[in-house]
Amino acid sequence: MDKKKLEGNLAMIGSKFFGGLNINALKFIIPVFISPIALVSIRVVFAAIAFWIISFLYKDPEKKPLSINQVFQIFMLGVFCIYGYLVCFMTGLKYTTPISSAIILSLSPLFVFLISAIFFSDKVTLFKVFGIALGIGGVVLNSFSHRTSDLASDPILGDLLTLASTCIFSIYLIFSKRLLRNVSPLDLIKWCFTGAAVASIIFSAVIKPSVPLIHESSGVAPWLVIIFILIFPTVISYLLLPIALRYISATVVAMYGYEVIVVATVTSYILGQDRFSWIQIGAICLLCLSVYLVEIADLRAQKKA
Length: 305
Description:
Layout: H1 3-29, H2 36-57, H3 68-95, H4 98-105, H5 108-120, H6 126-143, H7 155-179, H8 185-207, H9 212-215, H10 221-247, H11 250-255, H12 257-271, H13 278-304
Helix pairs in contact: 1-10, 1-12, 2-3, 2-8, 2-10, 3-7, 3-8, 4-7, 4-12, 5-7, 6-13, 8-10
């Protein structure tokens, strides 16, 4: 593995480690201490400010001037993909369990393939179709394996919202990869979160989301969790993502969702946020096998090319 690919893979290991802990941290504070929409707004506004500050302090030697068209494309990518992904994901987590959410997020490689096949004419093979079918089976098995409980108030709705967020995030990966051919990672993430921040301010001004944490005495723990979410899963994790996309493929980046499953599963059992289920284990195995088959098919296609 060359130095650049190693850098990309290490960036993804760090990004997805924080991504796994992010699921458990969000489950702890949503919706008891803060609503999903309010927390999304806080995250994207904080991240946008942080990335602008970083861009002023760090001078990228490879940075190229952005055209108005490039800024507009990245800005809109932030509006629809960053903001849309976070709203669907965090609202879904309100209704489902962390492990279920992590399982569905691991479908990202399949969505990357499907979107690439539909819009960018990537080759479709029987191997890939079989892999996708297994992935869908894993999601269905997972979604219908757990009922409404004290840990998941509406698991089907939560899983559907998480599925939508996974699709949106896959679109983000594909278009980010293409934009990074001519745009620096810092410029991409800075303008993406600027777009998301503008969208969040407008949307929050209309619906006025609730923040019980401000009005109730809840101790220091929720504040510490929010600070953790803002710094690590938001700023650091999203800063590492475009660095990884620059050196490794969008499909490989998406496959690091397996790390999210491991981290979120272990942490969930430790914190009591989920209960052990052999059906969930079966769903995870199906999803792992499905993504493996799609990736093997991709590698075979590349070798033939």
